[in-house]
Write a structure and sequence with these properties.
The strands form two sheets. The protein has a nine-stranded mixed beta sheet, with no helix packed on it. A three-stranded mixed beta sheet has the order 1-3-2, with helices on one face. By secondary structure, it is an alpha/beta fold. The chain has five helices and twelve strands. It starts with 11 loop residues before the first helix and ends with a strand. The chain has helices spanning 12-82, 98-105, 118-128, 209-224, 260-273, and strands at residues 87-91, 132-140, 144-151, 156-160, 163-167, 173-177, 186-189, 231-235, 243-246, 250-253, 280-283, 291-294. Strand 9 (243-246) and strand 10 form a beta hairpin.
Length: 295
Amino acid sequence: RRRERASYPDSPTLTGVMTAQRTFSSSSVPILNVWTDLKRGNDMTQTSALPRRRRRARNTGAVKAALYIIMVFCMVAGTSVFFEVADVRVSGNADYSQQDIINAADIRIGSNLLFLNQAAVKSRVMNALPYVDDVAITRRAPSTVVLTISESIPLAYVELDGAMFIIDKRCKILGKSDMSGVGDLIRVEGIKPIKPSVGHKIAAGVEEASKLEYLTELLGLFSRREMDGSVSSVDAAFEANISFEYMGRFKVSLGKHEKLEYKLELLQSVIEKIDATAKGTIDLSEDREAHFIPS
């Protein structure tokens, strides 16, 4: 019996699948081409946008720089207009008049208050006026400068070639005088100034430099401890044992340049323990010990 092969020429399902496969196969290439073209177009768009972004960034930076320059210019112009020096005031002065100090400061009226060179003003005043020990400069907006003066106090004198050079606690030379002008100032012996100049510190030779440091510290302590009125003279001839005359009754030997403040404290404690009329030498040259030798 002959078997017949079944065929389904009119089957809708099989026909649809085959048709879809043929349709997809025939259209897949154009779809891929379109997708590739779209992607390429996006890439080109992004690439072309980069230069524009860079240009915008450069333009923004230029604008910011221009605005900054304009702002700085306006600030400078503002300070020039609104902060001009119109008044200079002086306080703390005794030896010099207000006008002397203003002239030495040489602050120009109309100059800029904020840009005032304080170091230069201080230097001019102190170089021109030797009795000025320090200058504090205060700027008061919008237009005032205040100079507060601290003046040097004459403390001692050094003799050279018959002339008396008056010095303060820092060994700054305040003036030149004869014996009639030194009054009750401390007489300093054993120091030979080199080319003394008013307004400058005493200059000494190399061999006397450390001796001058010793003397400067000692005078500063006399001033701070208010002993200067009781010291009549200082003998600095021997650096290893500088001495001074005290209270008209004692010669005080200090020994080496060390622990000076402690030695002066020790001196006061020794004087409190001896008779009020006793005279002699108080030796402080030994560490932490004091010896009184009656005269």
